[in-house]
DNA sequence: GTCTATAGTGGGATAGAC
DNA sequence: GTCTATCCCACTATAGAC
């Protein structure tokens, strides 16, 4: 376990928080196994030994990043969908919340989604369970919409869920903060294509 | 460079081909940096030294897998889209060809898409260039459809392309051959949602 | 909380016999 | 084409002083 697991909402700027932020940044750039504790320490401007004051092993960094990312996105999505009652609007709110929350903390979220399977043992199990919980949350919103007659019933519920997750998740592999694409705009695009399709009327 | 770069269409069963196939399999399971030459040799039932008869360095395996995957999918997509003239049908053919070609050789394609950035130097540049070429091919089909008035013009071309790639690419992260989901069926689902949307009529 | 120094392991890759 | 043996380096992690 981490000596100092990341705490969401802690006032920023502490060294402990820099350790987590820089780890996520590096893990996203080079992958978990592609990142060495040497590079990490270098970018933090400390020695490797100092790094181990904050964390007891490298894998704890990945574990902490994954759990924080998942709690973060679940909170955002729950808050957003709870605020809407119309099934269509709940879907749009879901897309918007997931996309914006994951793109504004992209190091965390991209690291989680793309490196989760490098965890081992109980940490792997726990994170998989959290991710399943998140997907169940998404699945519930889609299921309700289909049950309300808002979504097509000639497509299987499972497929409707998978397509939606595809549309949102792959964005994390290519999005670059500060680039031309605005998360708000792209969330609208995904919502439009998912609900209305790309065909001209 | 690889001593024996993979040749598509070669009669199977040679040891050289097993080396490429098993590498792709392992890289998909554990990631490029997460896979050791020891594991690779073990699964091939040979020694590490023997492995180096087929390849001069580990990175050449990744490079060969990436280029083969990209050539493979480009061939499939070009053939499929050249056979159609209607812009809508070309889009459906594109989705079907990309999805089926990448899911039937998923070890190759998932390794390529998810580990491409672990390459370095010229090999990285070459593979990025190939991938850009592939995306330009996809982009052309979408552009033609929008120009023909088939796709909405209230959504930017760039966004229409990105959403489509999202829908197809993320599938490689979760698809398991032999599972309940049929590639043919899921290609139809993506085509339907992309063109018509998920809303009930 | 940060350091120097180092332990101890496992990594990619090579030499050279058969 | 496959092997045994080995090199050498980079890796994660720890001990213990300040």
Helix content of chain A: over 70%
**Major beta sheet of chain A, specifics?**
none
Question: Spans of chain A with pLDDT under 50 lasting ≥5 residues?
Answer: 7-11
Task: Provide the CATH top-level class of the domain at 59-196 in chain A.
Answer: Mainly Alpha
DSSP helix count of chain A?
10
The count of strands of chain A amounts to 0
Which structural class should the secondary elements of chain A be placed in? mainly alpha
Strand content of chain A: under 5%
Oligomeric grouping of the chains: homodimer
CATH architecture of the domain at 59-196 in chain A: Orthogonal Bundle
Q: Would you list the SSEs of chain A in sequence order as H and E?
A: HHHHHHHHHH
Largest interface here, residues on each chain? A-B, 46 and 47 residues
| Overall average pLDDT of chain A | 95
End-to-end gap of chain A: 55 Å
What characteristic shape of chain A results from the CA principal axes? Answer: elongated
Rg value of chain A: 18 Å
Q: How would you name the CATH homologous superfamily of the domain at 59-196 in chain A?
A: Tetracycline Repressor, domain 2
User: What name is given to the CATH topology of the domain at 59-196 in chain A?
Assistant: Tetracycline Repressor, domain 2
């Amino acid at each position: 376990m981490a000596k100092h697991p990341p705490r969401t909402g802690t006032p920023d700027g502490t060294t402990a928080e820099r350790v987590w932020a820089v780890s996520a940044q590096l893990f996203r750039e080079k992958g978990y196994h592609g990142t060495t504790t040497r590079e990490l320490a270098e970018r933090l401007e400390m020695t490797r030994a100092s790094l181990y004051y904050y964390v007891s092993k490298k894998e704890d960094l990945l574990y902490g990043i994954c759990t924080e990312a998942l709690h973060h996105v679940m909170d955002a999505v729950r808050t957003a969908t709870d605020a809407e009652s119309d099934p269509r609007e709940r879907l749009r709110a879901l897309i918007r919340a997931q996309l914006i929350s994951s793109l504004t903390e992209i190091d965390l979220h991209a690291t989680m989604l793309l490196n989760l399977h490098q965890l081992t043992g109980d940490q792997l199990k726990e994170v998989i369970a959290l991710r399943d919980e998140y997907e169940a949350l998404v699945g519930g919103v889609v299921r309700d919409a289909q049950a309300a007659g808002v979504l097509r019933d000639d497509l299987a519920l499972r497929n409707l869920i998978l397509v939606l997750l595809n549309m949102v998740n792959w964005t994390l592999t290519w999005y670059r903060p500060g680039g031309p694409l605005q998360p708000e705009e792209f969330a609208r695009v995904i919502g439009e294509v998912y609900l209305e399709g790309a065909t001209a009327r």
